[in-house]
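Lecture 7 notes: from sequence to structure.
We start with the chain below.
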Amino acid sequence: MKHFVWIALLCTGQAFCQQMQNWKGYDIHYSTFPSTLVPVDVAKAHNIVRGKNRLITNVSIRKEAQPVRAEIHGTAQNLLHQEVALTFIEVKEQQAIYYLSTQIVNEEDTISFRIFIKPESEIDTYELEFTRQYY
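Predicted structure tokens for the same chain:
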């Protein structure tokens, strides 16, 4: 639980965090942040590689205030149209389920994300698209 709380607090007050989409009653929360913001012990517990050129994408799904498991995959594409597949790992804690993916980014880049989210008991898949600039 302390790891989820840490990730939630990490984003408090930052404009690129606290992003949410609502779809079919699901609240889909997502954020991206530099991996260097993750404390060493948290990174080690979740096999996250920290580095100046690494970015973490975090996705969580809730319905009626309860965490929801999902199948999640996607891609990240830079301005040169170089695309990498995003592989998400599921992290389950007492009151939370969230999905983390790490990817390499250049120092200054604009990344377009396309993430497909299929909640466990849902037939349809939600397509989440967003873009982030990194300096």
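Points to note: The CA atoms of residues 21 and 28 lie 5 Å apart. Residues 8-16 have pLDDT under 50 and may be disordered.
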